[in-house]
Design a protein that fits this description.
By secondary structure, the protein is α/β, with parallel strands linked by helices. The mean pLDDT is 94. Strand 1 (3-9), helix 1 and strand 2 (40-42) form a beta-alpha-beta unit. It folds into two domains: 3-97 and 190-276, HAD superfamily/HAD-like (Rossmann fold, 3-Layer(aba) Sandwich); 101-186, Threonyl-tRNA Synthetase, Chain A, domain 2, CATH 3.30.980.20. It contains ten helices and 13 strands. The protein has a five-stranded parallel beta sheet with strand order 2-1-11-12-13. A four-stranded antiparallel beta sheet has the order 3-4-6-5, covered by helices on one side. The chain starts with a strand and ends with a helix. The longest helix has 16 residues, at 261-276. The chain has helices at residues 27-35, 48-57, 101-109, 113-116, 127-134, 138-144, 159-171, 191-204, 226-231, 261-276, and strands spanning 3-9, 40-42, 64-66, 71-75, 87-89, 92-96, 119-121, 150-155, 175-178, 183-186, 213-220, 234-239, 254-260. 35% of the residues lie in helices and 23% in strands. Bound molecules: magnesium ion (MG). Magnesium ion is lined by residues 10, 12-14, 221-222. Magnesium ion (MG) binds at residues 10, 12-14, 221-222.
Length: 277
């Protein structure tokens, strides 16, 4: 087979258990992939410090994607050449797909009097305020606050005003994602575009001339994984204990796990890799 296999994975509810954030059921598979030189690339809504911590715990040395596709981080010298249009930042080559947070903060502050008292953004909250609101530890709340490419807000107004606000933000060029607790104000980036760009860099830097294409395997449990799952060569929907599988348009090369979270992650990768032998 002359394809470079790349694994792109969501973290929360996929590689990490939805309730306890553990990865134990996936650990054997992580080792097996490492020994076969198959990169595991985290592709998450999390911030840089949050992903750096998980990466260290999982002993990953691969590139990763932060904040729902807002930027790709590649360790310096991971590829022979620095990819075009990337910046050097703390030992990483960084490709941004979205305007930075200041742009979105300005947009929010310009949104008009009607809305200014109807929300509170992460930037205005103290670490302990955010910890209280989310149930995160103060330490984890501090990491969650370090978003570089968008601003989550806690909506305090009613539903009607919220819908007006979303329309207004949309007109101003923002993308508003409704998460479980917060509205996320950011640009039109997604996990699929970032994945596609990074897969191209792998192919471009491949030293084995027999390898002429990539085979991307994407794994995710949530709605924010849809773009990545639609774009990949193989889509793996990992079963969630709290919601159904999100609807995909594609029907080809789609796996749905029986098990939840990291156990489902390992189960499907085992099925896919076994079928290749
Ligand atoms: Mg998830």
């Amino acid at each position: 087979m002359n394809k470079k296999i790349l694994i792109f994975t969501d973290l929360d509810g996929t590689l990490l258990d939805h309730y306890n954030y553990q990865t134990a059921p996936a650990e054997k598979m992580i080792e097996r992939l490492a020994s076969n030189d198959i990169p595991i690339i985290p592709n998450s809504s999390k911030t840089l410090p949050e992903i750096l911590l998980i990466r260290e715990q999982l002993k990953l040395t691969t590139p990763f994607i932060i904040e729902n596709g807002a930027a790709v981080y590649i360790p310096v010298n991971y590829f022979q050449q620095q990819p075009e249009d990337t910046n050097l930042e703390n030992g990483f080559w960084v490709k941004a797909f979205c305007k930075d947070k200041d742009h979105w903060l300005k947009l929010l502050s310009d949104s008009g009097e009607l809305f200014t008292n109807a929300f509170q953004g992460f930037t205005e909250m103290s670490d302990s305020q955010l910890a209280e609101l989310t149930g995160l530890s103060i330490e984890n709340a501090a990491m969650a606050k370090q978003r570089q490419y968008g601003e989550p807000i806690n909506w305090l107004g009613d539903e009607t005003l919220k819908n007006e606000f979303i329309k207004k933000m949309d007109l101003l060029g923002a993308q508003v994602l409704q998460g479980g607790r917060f509205l996320h104000i950011s640009g039109a980036c997604d996990k699929g575009k970032a994945q596609s760009w990074l897969a191209e860099q792998y192919l471009h830097n491949e030293s084995n001339p027999d390898i002429t294409e990539t085979e991307t395997i994407a794994l995710g449990d949530g709605k924010n994984d849809i773009a990545m799952l639609e774009q990949a060569s193989i889509a793996v929907q990992v079963r969630s204990p709290v919601h159904d599988f999100p609807q995909l348009n594609r029907t080809n090369n789609v796996y749905q796990s029986e098990e939840y979270g990291p156990a489902g992650w390992a189960e499907c990768l085992d099925d896919i890799l076994s079928a290749k032998r």
